[in-house]
Amino acid sequence: MGDYYEIAANHVDPAARHVAHQTLIVACRDLGITDADRPAVRWFSEPSAADRAYIRRYGEHVAERLEAGGPGVLEGRSIRGENVVWLRSSAPLESLAETVAHELAHLVIGRQRGGGWTASERARQEAAADAYGQRYQLEDRP
User: Fold this and answer.
1) Average pLDDT for the chain
2) 117: how many CB neighbours lie within 10 A of its CB?
3) CB 106, CB 63: distance < 8 Å
4) Counting runs of H as helices and runs of E as strands, what totals does the chain give?
5) In this model, does residue 13 exceed pLDDT 90?
6) For the chain, which domains are there?
7) 43: which strand partners?
8) CA distances (Å), 13 to each of 75, 80, 140, in order?
9) Which pLDDT band, with edges at 50, 70 and 90, does 63 fall under?
10) Is residue 116 within 8 Å of residue 7, measured between CB atoms?
């Protein structure tokens, strides 16, 4: 798995943008986050073959690069100290609301706790974010 690069929101499916925005509003309200403190949504994607060729020749040409945090496909990301929920632009609509809620939970937990997590604390934080995200899981998903 490689790095991911920010893409402009206008290059993302309008339905995905709508799901992300509406989920963010509802989840923020549920978690007591005011409109003024609501995180921004930013989108990322894996680079295309053309992007990789350009990067090899000229270097990075993007505003933001996200490093993958672990194995598998990165669906979303929140970074301590940023008030941003990052979402993969090609994420399935069926799982997008769950991903938004999951990443928002990470932001809230991180604000409450701060840094300096042990491995077991990170595992507990991930489990808590998973549990919160699952509240937004679509009923008809397998």
Assistant:
1) 83
2) 15
3) no
4) 4, 5
5) yes
6) 4-134 (3.30.2010)
7) 7, 87
8) 15, 27, 22
9) very low
10) no
Distance CA 119, CA 70 (A): 14
Gap between the Cα atoms of 141 and 71, Å rounded? 23
C-alpha angle with apex 2: 16 to 110, nearest 5 degrees? 65
For residues 58-78, give the mean pLDDT. Answer: 63
Handedness of CA 66, 68, 74, 80 (dihedral sign): negative
Dump pLDDT digits (tens) for 75-100: 888 877 889 999 999 999 999 999 99
Beta strands 4-7 and 76-77, pairing class: unpaired
Q: How many residues does the chain have?
A: 142
Cβ neighbours, 10 Å, residue 125: 16
For the stretch 14-52, pLDDT in tens is 999 999 999 999 999 999 999 999 999 999 888 777 777
Tokens standing for residue 129? 């974010």
